[in-house]
Amino acid sequence: MRRNAFVTTANVEALLAAVAELDRRGAEEACLIVVDGEPGLGKTHSVQRLSVQSGWVYLRCKKEWTPAWMLRELLETVGITPEYSFEKMFRQAVAALSDRAVQAERDGGTFCLVVDEVDHIARSSRQLETIRDLSDLLELPTILVGMGQVRSALGRFRQIGSRVAKHVQYRPATLDDVRALAQAQCEVEVADDLCAFLHEQSLGYLREAKEGLAHIERFGKRNGGPVTRESMDGEVLMNDRKTGKPIKVRAA
Q1: Nearest in space to 145 (alpha carbons), one of 121, 187, 172, 117
Q2: Kind of pairing, strands 246-248 and 236-239?
Q3: What is the pTM of this model?
């Protein structure tokens, strides 16, 4: 599969629209975007790819993160050797993020700080306050990514929750998303009836859809394409996420 191909799904479009809307925000300190949704909907993959494409800084929370550890990781991500005190590291981080924001503006883009797996720190005001301080000082769009409890968890901290300008909830992929994914990533032609079956059986979870496309591609390379629902009748498409049992293609 062409795994490097990136598909702009409906969820990605919603996230990009939220980033664009921050430029029109009223309160300058309201710079936070919360992205949440169930596992398997493509949140991490999409923010990682957008970070690479747009030059954003991407961080993944750790369960035992401290504010100092977070700053060290941020500085290492942007290629700066961290100083030995929290105060100095914070100043380094402000300078580094400011430089990137200014450069992005010169290039006509928007620079963002992305913090993934926020569930790990959603109950800790210390880490969240450090992120808020960076965002506030620089009026920096900051994307907080997690599962369905992130928004409610942030609501416990009024000074942080009040900074959330946009909420993007990742939803199951549409049929058009699955079609686009098949066209972009699968090295054999996938018939529309099989795309529809894949969408139905994956329940819109991109993780399962990609698993199904890998099976389709292997079948197509052995037997030729385009691969249809009928030609793949009886073949394993993916495993059921709840039971672990194989789901087989059924001819219409």
Answers
A1: 117
A2: antiparallel
A3: 0.90
